[in-house]
Design brief:
The protein has helices spanning 13-18, 34-67, 85-114, 226-237, 246-257, 297-305, 307-310, 323-334, and strands at residues 126-133, 136-141, 146-149, 151-155, 160-166, 171-175, 179-184, 190-194, 200-206, 218-224, 287-288, 293-294. It contains eight helices and twelve strands. The two termini are 35 Å apart. The chain is of the alpha+beta class. A five-stranded mixed β-sheet has the order 3-2-1-5-8. The model is unreliable at 1-11 (pLDDT under 50). The protein binds dinuclear copper ion. Residues 132, 135, 171, 206, 208-210, 214, 217 line the site of dinuclear copper ion.
Length: 337
């Protein structure tokens, strides 16, 4: 589809840091998969029909004004006021036909998006489960034994069924380049289908206001070619590597004793907290803090030191650490590839 210029909004300071992480700006018109293509086609159709209607009405208005030129005064009756055909056809029949056609085309697009895919065979969809939390996304691959956060990895050319649940309030799952929005509602089982045509990295957002940090509840979709996806699966399935150098050994001890392990899991260690993102392969992720920050050592250090400063209201408490403990912890976390 058309390549749109970076909008001024996306050139905000936060995005300036983040956009290097992604291949394209998040836009429903820069489609990367069949779901998004269908929606973009529908959007262009609606834009075209709306534009055509606007131009026709403006042309008729212009013609009417033109005909009134040279009338002696404004109080004189306009010519041919008794012609009702204009009202019936132009004001009733034509809009009714146009709206009916658009309505059924829209219904068809909805139907295609909601249709279930075959669950076996070569094109069987991959099933994943995504749970919305204030303010991050928990990601499970039940058939692969993988748990992650804020990042969905998918193979190209294969549909992926995303079962959507909420851990607290209403969120909405939206990856503009890949698929439309699906609400994530407590107690309701919703599903989205996503599919990417080629390898790449895209940004998604929570699209339903869900509290003060709604704007910082993003997620990334990374599409891999089949071989790369298998490699990713194998790496994610593995437990965290044991620290080897002395700094990381100290860092692991800091993680296990400073309180981090109450909330976070690192598979392969005693850390088994279930209320915060799984950190087993934290260092391999693109972003931190619900997609808010690129995953760099500096950002990670700032986040651990004072999360409430960066993201007021986040459930992550500040962890008071002296400088050398923090450096050791960072060395350890950076080893979790
Ligand atoms: Cu979750 Cu907005």
């Amino acid at each position: 589809m058309t390549t749109l210029a970076w909008s001024p909004f996306l050139q905000s300071i936060a995005w300036a840091q983040l956009r290097a992480v992604y291949d394209r700006p998040p836009s429903m018109f820069e489609t990367a998969g069949p779901e998004a293509s269908r929606l973009a086609s529908l959007a262009w159709l609606l834009i075209a029909v709306g534009t055509a209607a606007f131009l026709v009405v403006m042309a008729l208005l212009g013609a009417g004004l033109w005909r009134r030129r040279g009338m002696p005064n404004d109080d004189a009756p306009p010519p041919e006021v008794n012609d009702r055909r204009w009202v019936l056809v132009g004001g009733g029949l034509i809009p009714a036909v146009v709206l009916a056609v658009v309505f059924f085309i829209t219904l068809g697009a909805h139907r295609a998006s909601a249709s279930r895919l075959p669950t076996n065979g070569a094109t069987a969809p991959l099933l994943i489960e995504v749970i919305g939390h204030q303010w991050w996304w928990e990601v499970h691959y039940p058939s692969l034994g993988i748990v992650s956060a804020d990042e969905i990895h998918i193979p190209t050319g294969r549909p992926v069924h995303v079962a959507l649940r909420s851990g607290d309030v209403i969120h909405s799952f939206w990856i503009p380049n890949i698929a439309g929005k699906t609400d994530v509602i407590p107690g309701v089982h919703n599903e989205a289908t996503i599919q990417a045509d080629s390898a790449g990295r895209w940004r998604g957002e929570c699209a339903e206001y869900c509290g003060v940090q709604h704007a910082h509840m993003a997620l990334s979709v990374v599409a891999h070619n089949a071989g790369d996806f298998q490699q990713w699966v194998q790496r994610e399935q593995a437990a965290a590597p044991s620290p080897t150098d002395s700094g990381s050994v100290t860092g692991e001890r800091v993680f296990l004793t400073a309180g981090c392990a109450f909330c976070h899991t690192i598979r392969g260690t005693q850390a088994g907290g279930m209320t915060a993102p799984d950190l087993t392969h934290l260092a391999s992720r693109l972003t931190l803090a619900g997609g808010m920050l690129p995953n760099t050592r500096g950002n990670l250090g700032g986040w651990i030191e004072n999360p409430q400063h960066l993201k007021p209201g986040t459930r992550m408490p500040a962890v008071p650490l002296d400088g050398s403990s923090l450096q050791a912890l960072l060395a350890y976390l950076e080893s979790l590839r």
